[in-house]
Amino acid sequence: MNEAGTNAKRPNLSQSVQTFLTAHALPPETIFRHIVATLHAPSYRTENAGALRMDWPRVPLPADAVTLRASANLGATLATLLDPEAPAPGVSTGALRPGLRTLGLPAKRGGKTLETADLALTSGWGSTQNTGSGSTIVMPGRGLAAERDYTAKERAALEAEGKTLGLSASEVFALLGARTLDVHLNADAFWTNVPPRVWDYTLGGYQV
Questions:
Q1: CB–CB of 77/71 below 8 Å?
Q2: Residues 91, 99 contacting (CB under 8 angstroms)
Q3: pLDDT digits (tens, 9 = 90+) for 157-196
Q4: pLDDT at 14
Q5: Residue 118 · residue 108 · CB < 8 Å
Q6: In this structure, which long-range contacts are made by residues 55-60, counting pairs with CB atoms below 8 Å and at least 24 apart in sequence?
Q7: Are 91 and 81 in contact (CB under 8 A)?
Q8: How many Cβ atoms sit within 10 Å of the Cβ of residue 127?
Q9: Taking the model in full, what pTM does it have?
Q10: Which terminus of the chain is more solvent-facing, meaning fewer CB atoms within 10 Å of its CB: N or C?
């Protein structure tokens, strides 16, 4: 409830932050989107691992509106990609972005067609254990992720993706990893071309 005694909603922001946003004609959502971008930045997560484990991280704010707006735009994109019900242009709607056309494709050894039976998860990614008190816990496993060079087609697609984002080829592969992985469901079926830094960040299954 505000000072006038009405039920009008207002953002839960400090006065200094609200003043900064107002001065630069930025909506309150800018802060939320900036936080989303920051919390998903690998460097931030590494530098603030202890605070994140305690669920009490501090999120720095840029000193200028241009940087804050750019960060908020990244956060808005991330929020869309993380929401399975939100249409994401170039990902779930419209023409698929070039870099995504070769990432994480299901495949079978020898180029054969995948059948339902081929989807059995037997590569040891985890197992269940009885604790003895009637409950069950899931223990992670090493699984099977085979490292290899990018194919010419995969590299070209990722370089094209980089151009749309204003990144050079060296910057693209510095972000994704110099080589790629085939992540196996079993000995024959796998997802092709899962870059190691994507794998490490999203699944925690591969250390680079």
A1: no
A2: no
A3: 999 999 988 899 999 999 899 999 999 999 999 999 999 8
A4: 87
A5: yes
A6: 59/34, 59/35
A7: yes
A8: 10
A9: 0.67
A10: N
